[in-house]
Specification:
Length: 600
């Protein structure tokens, strides 16, 4: 009676575990496949044991049903041990799925043999025992499998995670206990109980992540990514939208500032220009940080002249210094290579940011901009440092320096414009270029920002690096015919106004289709400035259509408010000869006009 009550308890217990297990979604791996089989076999075993008990007591041990049940029970025992052996093989071979077809074929054959061999049952203390050739063969195979398990465990011990060993050791240990107990008191059968314990232990050692939770997390991740994309898209279209009116403000003020207007009006126009530049910087900053956060900011490496980059930076910083009584010192390594390979736009942005900060946060004294280099194995490590005698940074603030929107001493710096984005972007950009940035600062005395970035040295340069210095007043392109294509009337007006200064003849059209139509009749256009984002036919599409005509040879420059990083390269790849961003920078326009004028 003890035996059957054990079996009934095991049956209930295993049913609970099986229900819990099968109701949950599972990974389709060998661990789960084997465990599913193991628990079903174990459950069948408990049911067989219960049926056997009643069959022996009611129908008698000689009935064919009792003999049949005994043989199936033997088969159960073998199947269970076999299944566990496959589990050991699976965890030791570390295969994702185990192919066991030949083993199963052999196993079925063994079961048939067991079925064919004779079996006898005797009753002792109300418990039925089977013996005979069938039982001996079954136990022998069982022991062979047990040894096989031990062999696998020893051979692959390094592959097996310790927690996976627990059910296997428990199985070996419990098998020995079962055999010993049964030898002492045959009425106590512990086989099913020990199998159930082992099955339960396997259940607790298989790695079964909560798939539902993972699915929910994946959905949440997808939603967050979508929201982030939406944010980036929103910001880039906002940047485009803000640039368009800014183009008008900057363009017209620039044109006005060059005209003969009263002195006080000139001052005000200058202020408008400065305010627009700040606004543009802000738009670019927000766009950059959102691109960085969406992992969309790419580093685009090209060949460039480091000398020209540094000269540009010096000119820009001098312009920013304006009337400030600061000593701007420059110290560049004279052995810098001529041409380097890297993302010069981003490098320039990084250094300009540091220089702009020095100008902003230094009232008197000096700014020292120095560039040193270490050259080895075709790599030039640029060590760029920007030092100032400015307000300095408190030690406790240094850690937060590169966090976006962090600004310090707000009360003191209330008059200094800024967003707290500059250094956050700088740090990310330096990281993307595999460089390092460090800060040293003494509060009240000054700061030094040092950036180290490796750039490849270009020995045999293939591209021509533009180093020309353009003097606007020398550009006169009288007679040059420039076609401007833009769907926005104000933008057209701005371009016309700016180009008027060069004495060029400007023809404007408002769509790609009009441009194509005009060029079919006109053959004396010298340069085309083309917007990209136009309804119906974009600038890129228009250019493609124009280039279908093999004789088309007019240089086409992209003139667009789509001014996020990497856009220049994209437009050049699309077949544009050059790129101008809106708001149009006077210097850039000078460069383009001079480059494509017939007189150059
Ligand atoms: P922003 O200058 O737009 O406020 P940044 O990210 O460039 O933003 O700088 C963050 C803060 O770090 C600034 O607000 C300022 O308090 C401090 N800081 C940056 N550079 C310097 C510097 N050279 N000297 C003193 N403080 C600085």
């Amino acid at each position: 009676m003890i035996g059957v009550s054990f079996s009934i308890s095991c049956c209930i217990f295993l049913t609970i575990i099986a229900t819990q297990y099968f109701l949950k979604e599972r990974l389709k791996n060998s661990d789960n496949q084997i465990f599913s089989t193991l628990i079903i076999i174990n459950l069948i075993g408990t049911v067989l044991d219960i049926i056997g008990f009643f069959s022996f007591s009611i129908l008698g041990v000689d009935s064919s049903i009792s003999i049949f049940i005994s043989k199936i029970y033997l088969s159960y025992f073998l199947t269970y041990v076999f299944c566990l052996t496959i589990y050991v093989y699976s965890i030791s071979s570390q295969k994702k799925s185990v192919k066991v077809s030949w083993m199963i074929a052999l196993f079925i054959l063994l079961n048939i043999i067991i079925f064919l061999l004779p079996i006898h049952i005797v009753m002792q203390e109300n418990v039925g025992f089977s013996y005979g050739l069938s039982v001996n063969v079954a136990y022998t195979i069982g022991f062979i499998l047990l040894f096989l398990m031990i062999f696998l465990l020893i051979k692959y011990r390094k592959n097996i995670k310790p927690k996976k060993l627990i059910p296997i050791f428990a199985f070996i240990f419990l098998m020995i206990i079962t055999a010993v107990v049964q030898k002492i008191n045959p009425a106590v059968t512990l086989l099913l109980l020990s199998n159930s314990i082992v099955t339960t232990l396997v259940y607790f050692t298989i790695e079964n992540p909560d798939l539902k939770m993972i699915q929910e997390l994946n959905i949440a991740k997808e939603q967050a990514e979508k929201a982030n994309h939406a944010k980036t898209d929103f910001l880039s279209s906002m940047s485009h939208e803000i640039r368009t009116p800014l183009n008008a403000i900057v363009g017209f003020s620039q044109a006005l500032s060059e005209e003969d207007i009263p002195e006080n009006a000139k001052e005000e126009v200058k202020d408008i220009l400065m305010a627009s530049e700040n606004l543009l910087e802000l738009v670019n900053g927000i766009l950059d940080i959102s691109k960085i956060e969406a992992n969309k900011l790419e580093i685009i490496n090209t060949e460039y002249s480091i000398q020209k980059l540094l000269d540009d930076l010096v000119t820009l910083t001098r312009a920013r210094l304006g009337e400030k009584p600061l000593d701007f010192r420059v110290n560049f390594d004279s052995s810098l290579p001529k041409v380097l390979y890297g993302d010069h736009t981003r490098l320039k942005q990084v250094i300009l940011n540091l220089l702009t900060n020095s100008v902003k946060y230094t009232k008197k004294g000096y700014i020292l901009f120095s560039v040193a280099s270490i050259q080895k194995d075709g790599i030039c490590r640029l060590i760029i440092s920007v030092e100032d005698s400015g307000i300095g940074i408190k030690p406790e603030k240094i850690d937060k320096l590169f966090t976006k929107f962090e600004r310090f001493d707000i009360e003191k710096n209330i008059t200094i414009e800024g967003t707290g984005l500059g250094l956050a972007i700088t740090k990310k950009l330096v990281g993307l270029m595999h460089g390092k940035i460090i800060v040293q600062s003494v509060y009240g005395k000054g700061s030094r920002f040092t950036v180290a970035i490796d750039q490849k040295i270009v020995e045999n340069q293939t591209t021509v690096i533009e180093t020309e210095n353009i003097k606007p007043e020398t550009i006169d392109i009288t007679g040059m015919r420039i076609l401007v294509v833009d769907d926005n009337k104000v933008n057209l007006k701005v371009a016309e106004r700016l180009l008027k200064n060069y004495h060029a003849e400007v023809i404007s059209v408002m769509s790609g289709a009009e441009c194509i139509e005009l060029l079919e009749k006109e053959n004396s256009i010298d340069l085309i400035l083309m917007d990209d984002m136009m309804p119906k036919m974009s600038g890129v599409e228009t250019l493609k259509r124009l280039k279908e005509n093999k004789e088309f040879h007019i240089p086409v420059v992209a003139l667009t408010a789509n001014a996020i990083s990497g856009m220049r390269e994209k437009y050049l790849e699309d077949g544009f000869q050059d790129y101008l961003s809106k708001p149009i920078e006077r210097k850039e326009l000078d460069r383009v006009i001079q480059k494509y004028s017939k007189k150059s």
